[in-house]
Amino acid sequence: MGTCSFLTRARGLLRIRNQLARECLGELLSTFVLMTITLSSAAQKVTFFETKGNLLTSYLGGALAVMVGIYTAGGISGAHMNPAFSLAMCLIEQFPWWKFPIYVVVQTLASFISAGAVYILYYDAIWHYSNGTLTVSGPQETASIFATYPADYVSIANGFLDQVIGTGVLMVGVMGLMDTRNKPVPKGLEPVVVALLVLSIECSMGANCGCPLNPARDFGPRLFTYLAGWGPEVFRWVEGRERGGGGR
């Protein structure tokens, strides 16, 4: 009886009543889950020389991570997990503009934190694979675990167009799924369908730039790698670079 009373009081004290704070924490958690699974899929593929993962498992991990993220906080924050989606929601007047910068900061912060978590999780594997040198290019590079980099033939213009089209298809697909005038998705299965949409885009548009489709997904971990020892090259676009491994 005493234990139940203590737990009840503890839940009351820990309960967050501010709606914005609840939404921010939900968005932080859902984005963290999304990014941790996504980056871990890439880390397993790269650091084990594709013996315990490959391009398909990396794509599947990223797509299923979207599903898990939506189930984690879809009813609390909407589980945007992506500044592009938050912007699209603002443009169709389904999300207030004043919340947009807050969500972008939270999504980027969560991506940064998840990059740190994956770095710790795969610390030994990363250093073993890279022979003790953290590089952005070359056969033993590991930067692509965390952020996406272009293939050696892709120009800046082509890379920009690649991301505009890929992200645009994602937004159109998600908006179509949300539109009640269309054929409805069975209730509760919306995250599964979104995951399949992401997987289809990855399988068809991932070759040029790794298919990030998400500014926070790319910038947060990229900033982490800059601070963790990969250096300023993570922010440079180098055409014709020699690349190994590969991200999503």
From TrEMBL:
The keyword Hydrolase does not apply. It is found in: Cell membrane. The chain crosses the membrane at residues 20-39, 59-79, 100-122, 160-178. It catalyses: urea(in) = urea(out); glycerol(in) = glycerol(out); H2O(in) = H2O(out). It is a multi-pass membrane protein. The keyword Repeat applies. Keywords: Cell membrane, Glycoprotein, Membrane, Repeat, Transmembrane, Transmembrane helix, Transport. GO terms for molecular function: glycerol channel activity; urea transmembrane transporter activity; water channel activity. Its main location: membrane. GO terms for cellular component: basolateral plasma membrane. Aquaglyceroporins form homotetrameric transmembrane channels, with each monomer independently mediating glycerol and water transport across the plasma membrane along their osmotic gradient. Could also be permeable to urea. Also participates in cell permeability to H2O2 and H2O2-mediated signaling. In skin, transports glycerol to the epidermis and stratum corneum, where it maintains hydration, elasticity, and supports lipid biosynthesis for barrier repair. In kidney, contributes to the reabsorption of water, helping the body maintain proper fluid balance. Homotetramer; each monomer provides an independent glycerol/water pore. Could also exist in other oligomeric states. Belongs to the MIP/aquaporin (TC 1.A.8) family. This is Aquaporin-3. It comes from Certhia familiaris. The gene is Aqp10.
